[in-house]
Amino acid sequence: MLQKTTVRPTKPVTVMALIAALGMLLFGIFFLTLLIKEQSGPGIGFMVLWFLVLGVIIAYYIYNLTSRKGVVEIETRSQTPADESGPDFDAKLRKLELLKKDGLVTDEEYKEKRAEILKQNW
């Protein structure tokens, strides 16, 4: 059974990351003023890219702080009691082997059930 789970950083982690991103923004503004004074074309181009990436990072953390919903969705496969497959493949074979060793299952029943288990998806 596929189950979707949303995951998000805790509020303290989000606040710390947002503070760090704002610090990087201040550094970028300071550095950009120096580059403008020196008229460094490649440096100014890099700083434009810097601000774009930083804008995305800040927007992500602000969204994460204000949203009740997580920002990352993960699909997990879980086995529930209602699942028809029951115990996993390995456990079924081991249990069948024990039943045979204890004499509770005949050789014919063992072979039939083992073939049935092997036909199932692992």
Folded structure, characterized:
- The structure is a single chain.
- The protein has 122 residues and is mainly alpha-helical.
- It folds into two domains: 2-77; 89-119.
- The chain contains four helices and two strands, in the order βααβαα.
- A two-stranded antiparallel sheet has the order 1-2.
- Helix 1 (11-38) runs antiparallel to helix 2 (41-66) and helix 3 packs antiparallel against helix 4 (107-119).
- It is rod-shaped, with a radius of gyration of 29 Å.
- The protein starts with a strand and ends with a helix.
- The mean pLDDT is 84.
Element string (H = helix, E = strand): EHHEHH
The spatial strand order of the largest sheet comes to 1-2
Biggest sheet statistics: 2 strands, antiparallel
Rg, please?
Answer: 29 Å
Per DSSP, what share of the residues sits in E-state strands of 2 or more residues?
Answer: 5-15%
The number of helices is: 4
Low-confidence stretches: none
Which keywords apply here?
mainly alpha; 2 domains; two-stranded antiparallel sheet; 4 helices; 2 strands; 66% helix
Topology overview:
Elements: E1 2-7, H1 11-38, H2 41-66, E2 72-77, H3 89-101, H4 107-119
Antiparallel strand pairs: 1-2
Helix pairs in contact: 1-2, 3-4
Compact summary:
By secondary structure, the chain is mainly α. It has helices at 11-38, 41-66, 89-101, 107-119; strands spanning 2-7, 72-77.
